[in-house]
Amino acid sequence: MIIFGFSRRAFSFFSKYFIKGWMKGKTAIVITGGAAPPLGAIEDLLGKCDFLVAADSGLDQALAYGYTPDLIVGDMDSLGDRSLLADFPAERVKIYPVDKDYTDTELALDEIAPYGTRVLIGGGEGRLDHTLALLSLFEGPRSPDLWISGREEIFPLSESLELAGVPGEIISFYPLGNRDIRFTSQGLFWALDRVRWERGELSLSNRFAGDRVRLVREKGSLLVIRTLPGPPA
User: Fold this and answer.
1) DSSP string, 52-105
2) pTM attached to this predicted model
3) Helix 39-47, helix 58-65: angle, nearest 10
4) Would you say 230 and 175 are in contact if contact means Cβ atoms under 8 Å apart?
5) Range 8-151: architecture per CATH
6) Do residues 117 and 15 make contact, with C-beta atoms less than 8 angstroms apart?
7) Rounded CA gap, 22 and 25, in Å?
8) Is 157-227 in the same CATH topology as 8-151?
9) Which residue has the higher pLDDT, 3 or 64?
10) What's the whole-number average pLDDT of the chain?
11) Most CB atoms within 10 A, among 19, 33, 206, 210?
């Protein structure tokens, strides 16, 4: 059983959990285009990163954070200023054609596949088809362990765990795959015990009833979506 929650002094709760005990082996991070979290939400993660990849306009975001990527991949069609690429050695830039079978984010995630902990940053609030493509990653071999968008932290859940939060905090669940999925819960406003989890079924805008939620896995996996807490007052 794993327990984690967010601190009022740090914007991010799940990244803190990664730092403290769940990171496996070396850590790689992909920064992609789209709405991204504030630096305070991911600064600890970036500080622990062993290999940083920018996917296309993720380079703009990485540099805005003050970090220089180890590798840049993509077709560069959304990069703000292509002349930025001249600052990097040729072996650290992989340019692909615009017409290709995989998105820039998928290509970047392929580059970090060997790493023990894989994190995706950015990609929020963009085109709906791009958002769906990112969500589909969690059902395939390129699945990140954590996706931090501009507003949410999203992660696959395939084990039992306990979450710390605040009463009324929004949390949503979505089934992964077509397998039989069964979870029981304590501390949610709407318990998961009777959810049948057929494809398309979801627990949308569920809430913490108190300051703890306990999820017990019986079968299958869920996608957990939590809203990033705002900056401290």
Assistant:
1) EEEETTHHHHHHHHT---SEEEE--SS-S-GGGGGGS-GGGEEE--SS-SS-HH
2) 0.84
3) 90
4) no
5) 3-Layer(aba) Sandwich (3.40)
6) no
7) 10
8) no
9) 64
10) 83
11) 33
How far apart (Å, rounded) are the C-alpha atoms in residues 175 and 203? Answer: 9
For domain 157-227, say whether CATH 3.30.70.1130 is its number: no
What's residue 102's pLDDT?
87
> At a CB cut-off of 8 Å and minimum separation 6, what does 125 contact?
34, 35, 149, 150, 151
Taking the C-alpha atoms of residue 211 and residue 67, their distance in angstroms, rounded to an integer, is 35
Query: From the centroid of its chain, how far is CA 2?
Result: 18
DSSP for residue 137 = G
Sequence-distant (6+) residues with CB within 8 A of 101 are none
Check: CB of residue 71 under 8 Å from CB of residue 50.
no
Chain centroid offset of residue 72 CA: 19
The pLDDT assigned to 164 comes to: 83
What are the structural domain ranges in the chain?
A: 8-151, 157-227
